[in-house]
Automatic annotation (TrEMBL):
This is DeoR/GlpR family DNA-binding transcription regulator. The keyword Lipid metabolism does not apply. Residues 3-58 form the HTH deoR-type domain. It comes from Streptomyces sp. R28. Keywords: DNA-binding, Transcription, Transcription regulation. It holds the Pfam family HTH_DeoR. InterPro entries: Carb_Metab_HTH_regulators, DeoR-like_C, DeoR_HTH, NagB/RpiA_transferase-like, Tscrpt_reg_HTH_DeoR_CS, WH-like_DNA-bd_sf, WH_DNA-bd_sf. SUPFAM superfamilies: NagB/RpiA/CoA transferase-like, Winged helix' DNA-binding domain. The lineage of its organism: Bacteria, Bacillati, Actinomycetota, Actinomycetes, Kitasatosporales.
């Protein structure tokens, strides 16, 4: 069977079930597990699925926070560790509702910082740290996304200013546009951009191109991107040409 045909069948299986194991796909396609793993690597590189232990998942819409938080943890931690090195004690930062941004919060314990966030997982992580001044934005509770959102969050953001915004995204278009899947969340994210001196996007390679139908911002609104995507990726190249600093992370290692 041609690779293109296998890829179509794999994506169809994931869209119908959300997840599939290598063993199940190998049996369905009458192919070896090694062939299926190569197929999944290619499809992940194209941003069409996310590999997980033993198989793959597909995200036609944004996954609930707790599910997304369990995917690509080592990659997110590497991105978060790099982001933490950019922050100086005494600074103020905005952390948005993404799961990679939550991993950054884990790197901030005992730092003397002001953290502004609508991310309830960030709030839970930092509420007990007396070194950190923590501001929780108001708004409606979106339980599946573990966030606060709506006009109250926007209003709060108009009253604050921060040295940094660290934000995530559902996807990046080849031209460098940052995309979201949920229209209602975009105004608060744009308000965060307006409130931050410098804007840093945290995005693992699965977000190239990722998903999203609504534009949050363009390359002109970004100061830096931290990613484990290849430096030769077309989107990374477009961002560099637009003046965005593209900061690579070291590849994740097993057990590291």
């Amino acid at each position: 069977m041609l690779a293109e045909r296998r890829h179509q069948i794999i994506l169809r299986a994931l869209r119908s079930g959300g997840t599939a194991s290598v063993a199940d796909l190998a049996e369905q396609l009458d192919s070896s597990a090694a062939t299926i793993r190569r197929d999944l690597l290619k499809l992940e590189a194209d941003g069409l699925l996310i590999r997980v232990h033993g198989g793959a998942v597909i995200d036609e819409e944004r996954a609930p926070f707790n599910d997304a938080a369990e995917v690509l943890v080592a990659e997110k931690d590497a991105i978060a560790a790099q982001a933490a090195t950019m922050i100086e004690d005494g600074q103020s930062i905005i952390l948005d509702s993404g799961t990679t941004v939550h991993r950054l919060a884990l790197q901030l314990h005992s730092r003397r910082l002001t953290v502004i966030t609508n991310n309830l997982a960030v709030y839970d992580e930092l509420i007990g740290d007396e070194n950190i001044d923590l501001m929780l934005l108001g708004g409606m509770v979106i339980r599946e996304s573990r966030m606060l959102d709506g006009f109250m969050a926007e209003d709060n953001l108009r009253q604050v200013h921060a040295d940094w915004l660290f934000m995530g995204a559902c996807g990046l278009r080849p031209g460098g546009q940052v995309m979201d899947t949920t229209v209602a969340e975009v105004p608060a994210r744009r308000a965060m951009i307006a409130a931050g001196d410098k804007v840093v996007l945290l995005a693992d390679k699965s977000k190239f191109p990722g998903t999203g139908m609504v534009k949050i911002c363009g390359p002109e609104d970004l100061d830096a991107l931290i990613t484990n995507a290849s430096e030769d990726d077309a989107t990374c190249m477009a961002l560099r040409e637009a003046g965005v600093k593209v900061i690579p992370t070291a590849p994740a290692t097993v057990g590291g």
